# Entry
Amino acid sequence: MTAQDRARGRPHRPRPRAARRAIEIHPLNSSSKNAADEQPTPHRRLPVAVVIILVFVTCVAAAIGVAACVADDVSSDQSDQEMNCCWEDGATPVWMSGQMGIRIPEAASDRRAGYKVGQRYDTGLLSFVLPSEEAETYTGRLVRKGTKMIGNFHPEKKDYRPAAAFAHLGLAEPETIVQGLQKTSLCPDDLESPEGKYLRRCIDLFAHEFGPGTTRIYVRSTIEPAVTPPPASPGP
# Structure
């Protein structure tokens, strides 16, 4: 302290010591350490043999899919050809009823018939519409006394296509119908019912009430190949 300071009454303050330089030790940055430790792992390449096998399997699967589609198309085309093939034009309802021995009632409307030639046997189709009450009387005179027609408890699927399909006549297949359908099979052997006595061949008989008070009769029969329908009449 100087004399001037003492005279002025200033308090004595010691000079501060030289501040030690603080050495700050920074901890290692954990994220930097992890980044350094976690080096990018190189992608493993699949062996060439595995790649070849995968490509081969993919190609085989694609080829199988294409073959299946082609087979379905071919099968569908063959089914269409079989359904449309070998129908005789001269098979009228009158001629067909005579071959089967099925007498068509005078009140019948929308009469349709078809005759398909097959390799082992031919098939005749006959169909007509009657008022439901008359259809019930008619079928009752066909079946054996004391028996009744039954329902279609085991119908075929909607895409069912028999060898000789009623679809050729523009009709649904009766085997696929459930509601309102009755069916039976008849053969002429010892059949002495009022209408059955005229029967000439075994038949599958279906009666479908497709509308209130209206029933369609379906008849399908197997016929020996020696029978030939008359030639189709020329159009007007």
